[in-house]
Amino acid sequence: MSLSLATAALPASVLRAPALAAAPEPRLKDFGNDPWWLIGGKVLAIFVFLVLTVLLSMWVERRVIGRMQLRVGPNRAGPFGLLQGLADGVKLALKEDIVPRQVDKVVFVLAPIVSAVPAFISFVIIPFGPTVSVFGHQTALQGTDLPVAVLLVLAMSSMGVYGIVLAGWSSMSPYSLLGGLRSSAQVISYEIAMGLSFVAVFLFAGSMSTSDIVAAQHDKWFVVLLFPSFIVYVITMMGESNRIPFDLPEGEGELVGGFHTEYSSLKFAMFFLAEYINLATLSALATTLFLGGWRAPAPISTVWAGANSGWWPVLWFLAKLWLFIFFFIWLRGSLPRVRYDQLMKLGWKVLMPFSLGWILLVSTIRALRNEGHDMRQIVIVAAVAAGIVLLVTVVWEVVRGGEGEKETAPGAGRDAVRDPAAGGFPVPPMDAPHYHGRAARPAEPSTIRTPPEEVTSGTH
Predict the structure, then answer these.
(1) How far is the C-alpha of 72 from the C-alpha of 81, rounded, in Å?
(2) Where are the domains of the chain?
(3) Do 125 and 143 meet the contact criterion of CB atoms below 8 Å apart?
(4) Mean pLDDT lowest for which of 4-8, 117-121, 214-218, 402-406?
(5) From which residue to which does the signal peptide run (predicted)?
(6) Which residues of 344-356 are buried (b: 16+ CB within 10 A; e: fewer)?
(7) Contact at 8 Å (CB) between 351 and 82?
(8) What angle do CA 302, 308, 310 make, to 5 degrees?
(9) CA-CA to 134 of 20 to 30 Å: which in 52, 333, 364, 395?
(10) How far apart are CA 294 and CA 321, in angstroms?
(11) pLDDT by residue (tens digit) across 12-70?
């Protein structure tokens, strides 16, 4: 009672002091001024966060897919099986490290490192929250920021593919090599579409800095304004992560294990670690670019004034991050693996043309809005034009596919049998030389001799 009376006796200016003293949102110019101990603490915190996220993601994935498939999932290591990921890590560390005899040992050892290190670097530009006080020092809950921070994620993703390609090449195994080639082709096609989905975000935010992009979503998230870009990004991030339904580089049915067939022990664990860290990075990037970053959802932010200040935004960021991770896991337990030609066709013939057309549409709308034109008419005309283009594209694909099925070999009659492999991917003949380049062994003459009595009698 006395405390409430004392508070009521204070002037209004004093009561408003904490709100007025709240630190502003972090911007690009605010980075680079932290002391060395704070920078080291941020790097260590990000590293520990990623390792714990990997362990927890493995447990959540096994439990969720087990529930979807009417199984129990891990329930032995620790309470509710929570220590199963840690047990798997210890098991991989203690397993025998087998290196095949004919591999390129230097590249074979460096490939897992090249794959894992860029995965850690990408997360350093992800904002976890606003400016807070850490031991009396005002700093942003973010490792660092760059004028081209989003492009850093694309660059690190491209560098990680080098590890997969080099792992497949250095293993001297046809299955590993095919897995590496599939991964390079997949990343090239889907990374272009992913980069195009970012362009509309850059146009609306006016910056490639992640902190500026989050600040630009203070009133409305980009998932509402740029929903087509969000859909393209969600599809491409599944292709970037090499997970079902786009896990062709690891297709067990065709490639045994894919690019890491010959790896074991800690080297295999580093590929495993890189995959799950990329899963968290892609989810965090989707949260930052389209879901307002660390900002609270609309009902919470409108009712509670302090939802976007202090350490509370870390909670909203983690909730959005795990929502995307659960989406990845749900897709893995629901969808089958697509064919490789379907994967490439979706990337090159659907996602890229659609992204280019969407960028042109967004640029035109923003330019016309800046000139003072009526936005309602512009949106209606744009929607009609997009529908016509989509309809023409679908009709073209249907007509072209029907004509392709009617084609027959030139000069063939009505009863001619069509080659089922015609028009498909080139397949080496069964008697081709070994892939190492050694000449094929000539066919040996048959060692089975015909008895002379059968030759004379003609019974054979």
Answers:
(1) 10
(2) 28-297+312-339
(3) yes
(4) 4-8
(5) 1-21
(6) bebbeeebbebbe
(7) no
(8) 145
(9) 52
(10) 10
(11) 433 333 333 445 677 777 777 788 888 888 999 999 999 899 889 888 988 898 888 88
